[in-house]
């Protein structure tokens, strides 16, 4: 369960914010009522980071990877008078 902290409370209770991030999950910190940052346990961060693949690998695995994207070189059509 993630908890929402105001920045001042998070600064005053940084150890608690860190402990909760490790034991309970991500902790959201707000500034002026806007969600600004998330504190996560390092293990969770590593898991998220490793789950991201390379963009080039994503495009190679795409079902659209085999499309022929060369431009049609046939002459242009003649305009039709209306």
Task: Please provide a written account of the structure.
This protein has one domain (3-61): YefM-like fold (3-Layer(aba) Sandwich). Helices cover 40% and strands 18% of the residues. It is built from four helices and three strands. The chain has helices at residues 7-12, 14-23, 42-51, 55-61; strands at residues 3-6, 27-31, 34-39. Strand 2 and strand 3 form a beta hairpin. The chain starts with a strand and ends in a 21-residue tail after the last helix.
The CATH top-level class label:
Alpha Beta
- Give the oligomeric state of the chains in this entry, treating copies of one chain as homo and distinct chains as hetero: single chain
Characterize the biggest β-sheet: 3 strands, mixed
Class derived from helix and strand content: alpha+beta
Helix content: 40-55%
N-to-C span: 66 Å
Number of helices: 4
Features:
18% strand, 3 strands, elongated, YefM-like fold, 82 residues
Please give the structural blueprint:
Elements: E1 3-6, H1 7-12, H2 14-23, E2 27-31, E3 34-39, H3 42-51, H4 55-61
Parallel strand pairs: 1-2
Antiparallel strand pairs: 2-3
In brief, what are we looking at here?
By secondary structure, the chain is α+β, with helices and mostly antiparallel strands.
């Amino acid at each position: 369960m993630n908890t929402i902290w105001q920045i001042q409370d998070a600064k005053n209770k940084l150890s608690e914010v860190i402990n909760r991030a490790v034991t309970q999950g991500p902790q959201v910190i707000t500034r002026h009522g806007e969600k600004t940052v998330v504190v996560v346990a390092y293990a969770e961060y590593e898991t998220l980071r490793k789950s991201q693949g390379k963009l080039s690998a994503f495009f190679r695995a795409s079902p659209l990877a085999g499309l022929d994207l060369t431009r049609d070189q046939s002459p242009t059509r003649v305009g039709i008078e209306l």
